[in-house]
Each structure stands twice: as structure tokens, then as C-alpha cells.
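[job 0417] fold request received: Phosphoenolpyruvate carboxykinase [GTP]
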Amino acid sequence: MDAVKTGLNQPPTQHPRLLDWVKEVAELTTPDRVVWCDGSDEEWDRLTSELVAFGTLTKLNEEKRPDSFLARTDPTDVARVEERTFICSHDKADAGPTNNWMDPEQMRGIMTDLYRGCMKGRTMYIIPFCMGPIEAENPMFGVEITDSAYVVASMHIMTRMGSKVLEAMGDDAQFVPALHSVGAPLEPGQTDVPWPSNETKYITHFPEDREIWSFGSGYGGNSLLGKKCYSLRIGSAMGRDNGWLAEHMLILRLTSPEGKVYHITGAFPSACGKTNLAMLEPTIPGWKVETLGDDIAWLRYGEDGRLWAMNPEYGLFGVAPGTDYKTNPNAMRTLEKGHSLYTNVALTDDGDIWWEGMGEAPDHLIDWHGNDWTPNSKGPSSHPNSRFCTPIKQCPVLAEQYDDPRGVPIDAILFGGRRASTIPLVTQARDWVHGVYMGATLSSETTAAATGKVGVVRRDPMAMLPFIGYNAGDYFNHWISVGKAADDAQKLPSVFYVNWFRRGEDGRFLWPGFGENARVLKWVVERLEGRGEAVESPIGFVPTPGAIDISGLDTDPEDLAASVRVDVEEWKEEIPLVEEWFAKFGDKLPAMLWAELDALKQRLGMND
Ligand SMILES: Nc1nc2c(ncn2[C@@H]2O[C@H](COP(=O)(O)OP(=O)(O)OP(=O)(O)O)[C@@H](O)[C@H]2O)c(=O)[nH]1
Ligand SMILES: O=C([O-])CC(=O)C(=O)O
Ligand SMILES: [Mn+2]
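[job 0417] inference complete; emitting C-alpha cells
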């Protein structure tokens, strides 16, 4: 109890609202200890050592992976739980047809009962954090309370956090309260498990109160509350109210051989290529890509009337399988520098990590369940949604504008999904509203990033289906109104729709992807400069057969032609699906999007 008293009676802040909230949570959850996190290296060392001693983390080979650790989760706690994620607006209509909803008072009742005594036997950590630079004009503060040391260690990497944030908050700054518990109280004498969690899970957002309550899961997407919960779900509601956009987007800086600089954002659903594109190593000579963000972007108008994007995060929480020196060398180099957490990947006999796609499989591994594994074993060694968590500052191609609170002015926005058919390699929208239509009708096959069936095609508007914190119809309207707010439509980013995942009849990918995607970026730049060759197809501008630079590329020209083909019959099959999708939103769907759909039907020759 003394430690509780120390945490509560000698707090490192005088912020009244924060202190009231901390006290209230401590009284409700009854932890054994209360710790204010300072964000120091000593704190990281202490927490990781404790987690190693406890068996939650395994220390990796210091020479190969300095200061790096492996976590194995409970096998039932490996991904975001979309069916347990709620938007609790006062009015159900404000959550819209794509979100789970419950009345906020009812939800607070249910969760308060779950939280009562839930930190018994555990330490309650208080993590002051800031999404985006602390030096911003309006720093976006949050405070996460959690009973998971793994969460604290991960927040060290993923956010700017600790004493410097608390200091910047003074005693009156606004902040987003974010409460997290793994939901596993310990009775006296009860032995703990390495990965405590609860079968009952709630990932809950109160958009009007700008508040987050999460219970039962320790997995990153459910527990690192600055990420999806704050920066996207609460962030999108803030953006709606204040004229900006919170998006599931990478941000990259592209320099052409002539030295011209472009900034591009890309919205692809989870596990559909954002991290890879953000760190891409171009295969075509003279082109350079620098990283600004790999998952989240906040877009606002700058004084110059252009849309600027900044990355609120401080680390990368990337999909491990498929990452290696061939596909994403810059991610591998980032990880070489150490100071990283790995979750649910395999452990090699010499204390290194391994996952599917990282060269040839070693003869023996410990798999993500903690069992012996050989190449003959059934099932993969690493969970398909296993992750690396690493400081973005270690990225060897990080752009220096990374820490600029204004971000960078955006030239092009890419929407993209994972579709085996129909969607060409790249299509340019005619204008902003057509671009919004492309985003609003984006579709993709589900991946292991969320629990549930993998490989099912679903609409994933702007790659934000699981992350829009309000009615998606209102969100489409907001996108249109952001376009209208431009003082000059010429200053708006040009919108493109890409698909790296189209397959041939034999199932192989038609486009080599990864570093070769620079060839598509080159065409995008040529279009921005008004010179890339394109044909106007029913669905937008697509490259002419020779327009994509394939010099030095060892790809069957027929595959390339198939990858950019617009198949009118396939597109006709898409139309009823879009109609069904739009109908969900009733009169919330902007009339301009119905008009876009009608015009597309006309162009496809579907006049009824
Ligand atoms: N075929 C192909 N696969 C790709 C390409 N880019 C990425 N991938 C694979 O897709 C998977 C996910 O890629 P990421 O870049 O981690 O996806 P993400 O969008 O950042 O995922 P989240 O972190 O879940 O939001 C990995 O297994 C990659 O190897 C590509 O251009 N072509
Ligand atoms: O949030 C997570 O768990 C990881 C992620 O980036 C996503 O799923 O988009
Ligand atoms: Mn993501």
C-alpha cells in the first residue's frame, strides 16, 4: 500500500484533472503499486529486466540484436479484435453502420464493473504521452494508465512520453485519458502467467468525451492506446470537428533524378504494404525515398493553402513475416540497431529472431508458441500477425522533416488494397471527388492483422473501416468538404488507386512489388508533372502500355499488361457490391458519391 501512497501522494505533477482521474482509477482498480513513467533509459532497462525475469520477454543475442527482446502472447491475444471494438457516441446514428455501438452510460456501467479490482496484485503505470512533436503549437497529449509493463515498454518506442511530456502539460493542458487493463487481477498467492489477458475484451471509445477504455487484451493494436484508438478513432472525430483528417496512411518523401521533391501518402488496409512502401528502396536509378511515417497521418491545411501531413507516432509497429533484406532492406537495417521488441516471432538457437519470408528456414527454432519447430513442422514458426516494434529514429532513410510539427505538403494520395482481380496496378482519379469515390469504395481481402477470417473481400473505405470514430457517411462528407475548403483546387493532392496484389490465373502476383513499386511512383510523378502517358478508362486514367518504366525489370510483358488492364466485365460485377455498400449509409451518403457511381455505370455501358 505504501507504493500506492507514494504514487498518489507525491505525484510528479500538479495537474488537477489528471490527479483526480489517477486517484479515481486507482480507487476503482486497486493496484498494489502506482508508478509514474518518466520515459528514461533506466526505466526501459528496469522494465525489460523485470519482464525477462518474469518470463514475458526473452532477451535476444546482444551481439546480433542489442537491447532487443521477444514476447510471446497468449495464443488467443494476437491481433486487433474488431468485433469487440466500440464507438460509444450518445446517438447511435453517430457511430454509423460500420461500427459497433453501445450507449455510453451502459458501456461505462459494464466496464466499470470489469475494472473494479482488476489491477489487484499488479502495478498501475501512468504514461504521459504526446502524439506528434511536443513542440507543436497544439501538442496532442494523452495519458495512458495501464497494468501492463509490456505496454509501457512498447509506448517508450511508439510515442514521445514520460517526464518531458508531463512537464509540457503543465497543470492545465487538455489530454485524452486512455485507460487500459489486461483484466487479470491476482489474488494473494496466485501465480501469474507470462501473458495475462482476459477472455472478455472491450476496446471502447467515447468520441464526445475524447476518452478511451480498453480491457482484456495486451496485443499492441488493442493496448497501445496512442495508436489506433487515439490517433485514428478519437483523432478522426477531432478532425471532423476541426477541419482536418486523421488517416491510416504512410508518408514518404520522393526525390526524382532531377532533384525534384514530392511527398506522397498512402492508405492501404492493415498488412497491405504501408510499412514496405514507406521505406522502399527504389530499383530505378536516381530515385530516392525517405520515410516520414508508416501507419498514421494527420492532414491539415498549411498557410500556403496546401494539405500537409504529419506522423503522430515515434516508432514502427510492423508486420514481421515477409520482411527481409530483399523485400524491405531498410526495415532490416532499422532492426539491426536494436532497442526493439518482437512479438510472436520465432527464436533461433543462437538467440536471434526469424520469421517466414526471412531467407531459408533454420533447421531448428522455437516457434511463437514456445515449442520446438523444424521446417517439417505443421504451421508457421511465427504468427502471421507477428510484429516488430522499433524506434523510427533508427530508420536509415528517415527524412529530416520527421520531427517538424507541421509535417510536409502532400502532392499525391494513394489508396490501395489487396485484390486478386479487377483493380489495376494504378489508376489516377479525375479530380478530388472522384478520388473520394475511389477511397470510399476501396476494397481489400482481410488479413491476419485482425481476428476473423482471412482473404475475404470487404469494403474498407480509405483503409479506415476499423478506425473511423464516427458515422462513415459523415466521414465521406468530411472528405468532400475538406476538398471544397481548398482555396484553389489545383493545390489539392492528386488521388491514385493502386493494387500491388493482382494475380494471374495461376495465382502468382502479376507485379513484382516492393522496391519495384518505385516504377509506379515514377509514373505518379510524371502525371503530377503533366507528362505521364495515360488513357482515360471508365474507372479513371490508367498507364498506356509503355508508360510504366520497366527498364531492367525481368517481368513478362504480358503480366505487366494484365496488371494494368481494365476489365469492363469485372468492373460491372463490382457495381452491385458498391450499390449495396452505399445503401448502408442511407441519406448520410453524399449525393456526389451516388453521382460518381451513376457516371461510372454510364461509362461502363450499364445504362438501365
Ligand atoms: N506481393 C507484395 N507483397 C507486399 C508488398 N508490400 C508489402 N507486401 C507484404 O504485405 C505484408 C504487409 O506489409 P506491410 O508493409 O507490413 O503492411 P502495412 O500496411 O504496413 O500493415 P499494418 O502495420 O498492419 O498496417 C507483408 O507480408 C509484406 O511482405 C508488395 O508490393 N507486393
Ligand atoms: O494496430 C495494429 O494492431 C497494427 C496495425 O498497424 C494495424 O492493424 O493496422
Ligand atoms: Mn496499420
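[job 0417] notes: The chain has three domains: 2-53+83-242, 245-313+400-603, 316-394. The radius of gyration is 24 Å.
[job 0417] exit 0
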